[in-house]
Amino acid sequence: MARKPAKDVAKARKQVTKAASSVTAVGKAAVKTAGKAAKEVATTRDAKTAKKQTKVARAAVTAAAGAGVQLVKTAVDVGKKSARGLAGSKEVKTASKNVRRATDASKKAAKSTTKTARKQAGATAK
């Protein structure tokens, strides 16, 4: 009975490590999708027209501002799309599972260790 808390603590530690690695995978996936989104925005027609307009009409600030607003709108739309894709990705799902397992394991470890401590305290009091 004395080894149970040690096993539970070891299991909890393992689950926490697994959860951390899956959260890292989610971060990597997020960076990857953000990079794709940035590339996609850079190659859009809006970006190209904004570039041409700023080159040609430096004096005509209003035209360039209009193209810039359109570019921002496009960037926001692309960002939303990539965020939606990331939220339903495999990495996010596995990360949430692993985090849940880690919290359950750490709860169990904490509960079992306090239980044994109470038993030992009761035994010494008698």
Question: Could you characterize the architecture of this molecule?
Answer:
The protein has 126 residues and is mainly α. Helix content is 90%, strand content 0%. It is built from four helices and no strands. It has helices spanning 4-42, 45-56, 61-87, 90-125. The protein is rod-shaped and about 90 Å long. The model has no long low-confidence stretch (mean pLDDT 76).
Gyration radius over CA? 27 Å
Shape: rod-shaped
- The mean pLDDT is 76
User: Secondary-structure element sequence?
Assistant: HHHH
Helix-strand makeup class: mainly alpha
Total number of helices: 4
Q: Distance N terminus to C terminus?
A: 20 Å
What is the fold's blueprint, element by element?
Blueprint (H helix, E strand, L loop, with lengths): L3 H39 L2 H12 L4 H27 L2 H36 L1
Helix pairs in contact: 1-3, 1-4, 2-3
